[in-house]
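Checklist before submission:
- one chain only
- standard amino acids only
- sequence pasted in full

Submission:
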Amino acid sequence: MNKKKMIRLTALVGVATATGVVAEANQAHAATTTTTETTNQTTNASVESTQAAVDAAQSTFDTAQTSVDSAQANVTSASNNVTSASAALSSAIANKEAATSENIASATSAVSSQAVVVASASQAVSEQAGLVSAVASVQASAQAEATSASASLSSSSANVASATSALSAAEAALTSDQSTAANNLSAAESAASSASAAVSSGQAAVDNAQAAVASAQAIVDVQSSDVINMSVAYITALKNYLANPSSANAAALQEVAKGADYVKELQQKFKSNASLDVVVDPSDPTVQEALSVYAVNLINHLRNQYGLTTAFGASANANVAAIDFVKKYYDDEDWNIFGTTGKGHNKNGLDAYADQLNTSIAEDAGSGLTTWVNGKATMATTTLHNLLYAVYSDIATMLFDDGDTNNWSHAWSHAQSIFEDGTILGTDGFNNVYLGVAFDKYGYAHYELYNATEGNHLGNNAYSLDVQTAAQALLTNAQASLASAKASLQRMTTNLMVAKAAVVAAQNQLAALENSSANDLVAVTKARTQLVSAETSYQTALATYKQKEEALKKAGDNLAAAQASLEAAQATLATAKAKLAELEETVANLINADHLLAAAQAAYEQAVANLTTATGNLGAAQVDLAKAESQLALAEDTAEQAKVRAAIAAQVDQQLNGSTANDRQSAGQDATSLKTNGRALTATVATASAAKQKQGANQGRLPQTGNDDQEASTMALVGLGMLGMATGLYGYKKKRLTK
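Returned file contents:
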């Protein structure tokens, strides 16, 4: 549909719609028996009716489009048929022109000549097929002889294998008894050696278990006797300093602490026990328990003297966390906390690990094995005595030799970490402290203070801090291990005695069998003779097999050549037959030229007629499609205007129910303005509402004729009618119709 025509039609419908709605509204107001609800029902019914018309028009348009598509396909097919029929007609005309008596005679002669060629080729195929049959018979005979030779070769090979096996068996029998006896002796000696080694290992286990019992007993003694006591003067000075870390308070604390001299005095009181001099692994769970319980009991005894009621705890989980932290952030990073190039605490590591565990962590570190142990014990050779002594010495140093005369504000931080309650070094969140002890690869001791919560589980698997109970359990386990080791040693000793007896028996058996192999030697000689004969027969069979295989290969080659010749003759025959058929078809076409031309002419005319019909059908379908397209556009415009009428009616009803003459006049003026400016419908409603607010002032100045509400509504309807026209012109987009 032409776009300009559609716009003009839309404009006319818009005016008509607006005018109709105004008329309906005036009628509704004049007839007092007609209600707002009736007007709305009428306009809504119009919307539904026009939408139904749009749906019906759309269906008609779709059907017409399908008809056009089908007609177009028929035209295309008919056109292709005309082209094909035209080519066939041209060929028939050319054939008719060539159908002279001379050409027919010449073509007939060519057919006769080609028939002779076909007969000759057919004879050649027959002869070659006979040759292939004869050669195939020779090949089959050669195959049978080759198969027989192969079977003979396999039999000879089996005889060789059998003779070889017999020889091996005879040779094995010759040495079997002596070999068996020698093997028995070797096995017995090996068993005796293993039993002896087991006895030595068992004795070592007993020795280690006895040492463990002694160490456990020593731990009981050490845990019970090693304590550190603080003087009242020291406690008072420390509290004063922690409350006010001034240089004066630091000097007073330094004086009563007595520094390194008092540490040495305390070290001399450490209870040394030779049973503790057993090499241990500092990360072993049993050793970890002993170290952490020992350190926590020392600290809790000090906290009690200080006047604190809260105690530190020890647990397997806290120890595992301490070992993991020290390995990851000190050992793996080659972080030497002291030494000549000491880096101090790994603060970044502490922050990262605190985030990982979601808790607060504080760390104290001490010289550990590097200072307090004579000879600077290494991690590989340290003893339980060294570890306990290092812990004792570190805690004593943290208490009494932690002053820094060069920087008083950083002195006594280790003592502060031991005695603060709820905070450590100014950091909150230490209300449930658990201590983990670990030694790094350099030999330095790390004391990790964790705040345990239900979420991080650091307080789980807690150790008993009852020294006697924990140490006694350690002693009981060590004693049980000693008893088990002694029982194992007894069993190993018995096994050694049995193994030694087996060695003596095996030696006697070997001596008895040294002169009993004469018959076995005869059997070996006979087996060797049979093997030589079998190998000779095998070589003869192998030569025959190779000869027959060569004859079979030659027969196969001959058969392949004959078959290739047959295939070539068959190809020649096929070509000759194809040429003969082509010539015969040429003769038939020349003889029947008139009939073929008539048939081609008729087919061409029919194709042209079909194309004409299809073209006419396409034109008719296109006309129907254009009509359906026009009807659809008109139905859509009508539906859109029905929607506008419904909206106008609703606004009119609103105006009729509450406006005055002044409102209607103002609404009419505003509607005209909206027509000019192209505003939206909602602007009209806002203007009318504003006019209503001015009702009192205008009522005194304007003429009062007739019903105020009716006059205002009429003016509003005029304005809304103009708005409907503007909306019809500019406010809607039509559905795009495509073929």
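Reviewer check: Strands lie at 313-314, 361-366, 422-424, 427-430, 433-439, 445-451.
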